[in-house]
Design goal:
Beta-Lactamase; Rossmann fold; 5-stranded antiparallel sheet; 16 helices; 25% strand
């Protein structure tokens, strides 16, 4: 090769290198070239102008001069570690400009490797991502604010994926179930979290999610105490511009008191609750003799209390009328008055009649039945001819009077009741037990 040709090639390379420098100086992002050990070899003009640095400051390492003090130590450590690994990597850092403004940048490090696999250069570009970081911070803050708001609402709030997987639950949901947010997000709400008798209702949930329209369910949810409470769960979908569901929002409202009130009203209808006469409590009682007047005075005195009352008298003397008068004059007058004729019920069925039974508790128990005690909850239960009760039922009755709770036949789950008991008999109970 002639000397003229060699000189021409060298000049061409220098021109080529000059063109590249001109191009990189014109690009409006920070561009830096490093040696294999991280020594700064070149910084483009845009970085010089933005950072306000001079050439000798670059040689000393511009990161120490421009990186935010709170980020510098971590950035240098991560940079040193990743340079040794020899693979592309990214770093996020805050850089100071000559104006004193501090903005987030994404520094992307890419190695230049020779044919032997050795790194000969690192090319670094630093892109301004401050606006993106601020948006991310705003979104994070908004998300935290929303969580704070949902946690403050005293109602269960749950966010679901389109397939029904739990993505988020508020603090009330965690408190009621006794589960952590991580557990709920990982496992969801297992079938054990609901009453066994509500399996069909849960299948309705799956159908509703498939349809994709707003829907609601009533079911019993298990609290961490083991208690089941009725909830009205309302599901509302969030859809994108194409009509595809991207989220389900579910809220659960406690309606247990309402359901119990409805059940009480149904129970009162089952026992043919009689219309309460709000007029004079003695309008059905005819008599003006001295003994009758004395009796009515006792009724008026005893009626306002919640004391258990035993009415004694021969058949046909009006014991039920006295019982009704006691009820009408009491604070329970607006609630049920339930009568049970103990002599008219077979002894084998008396426990079921009084306390109710579960489905399958005995032959012929095809469904759960509410007993008279439950039907009279909040009101008065009148047990006529109580002397006909078998001894084992009397023991169970004593427990109800002492502990104000009972169990249905075939169940070991106690049920609390608030019932005033009035009993009547035409027998001499002392003589019967003597």
């Amino acid at each position: 090769m002639s000397a003229d040709h060699s000189a021409s090639s060298e000049q061409h390379l220098r021109l080529h290198e000059g063109d590249l420098l001109t191009i990189t100086d014109a690009i409006p992002i920070d561009i830096t070239v490093l040696a294999a050990d991280g020594t700064v070899l070149y910084v483009n003009q845009f970085a010089f102008d933005r950072l306000g640095l001079k050439a000798h400051e670059v040689k000393d390492g511009y990161l120490k001069l421009t990186c935010h003090p709170d980020d510098l130590s971590q950035v240098l450590d991560e940079r040193r570690t990743n340079l040794l690994k020899g693979v592309p990597f990214n770093l996020e850092m805050r850089l100071l400009s000559k104006s004193g403004e501090c903005r987030w940048h994404l520094a992307q490090y890419n190695p230049l490797i020779d044919e032997s696999g050795h790194i000969i250069r690192w090319y670094v570009t630093a892109i301004d991502i401050d606006d993106r970081k601020r948006v991310e911070q705003t979104l994070r803050q908004s998300k935290e604010d929303l969580r704070t708001i949902t946690d403050a609402i005293r109602q269960v709030i749950v966010v679901l994926a389109p397939d029904g997987k739990t993505l988020y639950a508020n603090q009330v949901a965690c408190e009621e179930t006794g589960l952590s947010l991580n557990a709920i997000m990982k496992e969801g709400f297992a079938p054990q979290a609901y009453h066994p008798d509500d399996a069909d209702r849960l299948r309705g949930r799956e159908e509703g999610l498939r349809r994709g329209d707003p829907f609601e369910l009533e079911l019993r949810a298990r609290h961490k105490s083991g208690e089941y409470r009725w909830k009205l769960v309302q599901y509302n979908p969030l859809k994108d511009e194409g009509g595809q569901i991207i989220r389900w929002y579910a809220t659960a409202t406690d309606i247990d008191d309402q359901k119990k009130t409805e059940e009480r009203l149904r129970n009162e209808n089952l026992v043919l609750r009689e219309e309460i006469d709000r007029s004079s409590m003695f309008e059905d009682i005819v008599g003006s003799s001295t003994p009758m007047s004395q009796l009515l005075k006792k009724v008026e005195k005893v009626a306002p209390s919640d004391s258990t009352v035993l009415i004694l008298g021969e058949t046909g003397t009006g014991k039920e009328l006295i019982a009704r008068a006691l009820h009408r004059r009491s604070k329970r007058a607006s609630r049920a008055f339930v009568k049970v004729n103990c002599a008219a019920i077979p002894q084998s069925l008396i426990a079921s009649e009084l306390f109710g039974h579960e489905k399958g508790a005995f032959t012929g128990a095809m469904q759960r039945r509410v007993g008279r005690f439950e039907a009279a909850n909040g009101g008065t239960l009148f047990l006529d001819e109580i002397g006909e009760l078998p001894m084992e039922t009397q023991i169970a009755l004593l427990r109800v009077l002492q502990e104000r709770e009972f169990e249905r036949v075939g169940s070991n789950h106690p049920i609390s009741v608030d019932v005033r008991l009035i009993a009547a008999t035409n027998r001499d109970l002392n003589a019967s037990t003597g």
